[in-house]
Write a structure and sequence with these properties.
single chain; two-stranded antiparallel sheet; rod-shaped; 3% strand; 144 residues; 2 strands
């Protein structure tokens, strides 16, 4: 605290006025600083609100992305199950068709084997008959 010198009427007016002027200057500086800080606080609050909104938007976007990701995974799992079931069904049809073809081929092979056996018997019979004719011709030739 400042001390003032004494004069006849009281304190030195020049010192008191200078002190008051200094106090006014300091008070105005404090008031200006407070106003500036209040403005900065308002600006920071606005910026904070802006970032809070961005944060909420990002949270919402993340939740939506996570939900979409889960939906995509679930759809992919279901689709893969359908594909596997279709593949099994198609494989079953292919195997059944192959088995039916194999059975038909086997039946044809059996039929061919039987036909070959019948053909061999008939051919043998024809050859035996022709040999008998040849034997008869030889006997006829010899007797004459």
């Amino acid at each position: 605290m400042e001390k003032f010198s004494h004069e006849q009427d009281g304190y030195n007016k020049h010192e008191v006025n200078k002190f008051i002027d200094d106090v006014i200057v300091q008070t105005e500086a404090v008031i200006n600083r407070v106003k500036s800080q209040q403005e900065e606080i308002r600006s920071l609050k606005k910026e904070l609100e802006h970032y809070k909104k961005i944060e909420e938007t990002l949270k919402s976007a993340l939740l939506n992305a996570e939900k979409a990701s889960n939906d995509i995974k679930q759809n992919a799992i279901e689709e893969s199950k359908i594909i596997v079931m279709d593949a099994k069904r198609n494989a079953s049809h292919i195997v059944n068709d192959a088995l039916m073809r194999a059975e038909k081929i086997e039946i044809k092979a059996d039929t061919l084997e039987r036909n070959i056996v019948v053909f061999k018997r008939k051919l043998k019979l024809i050859i035996d008959q022709q040999l008998a004719v040849v034997d008869d011709i030889e006997e006829l030739d010899l007797k004459d």
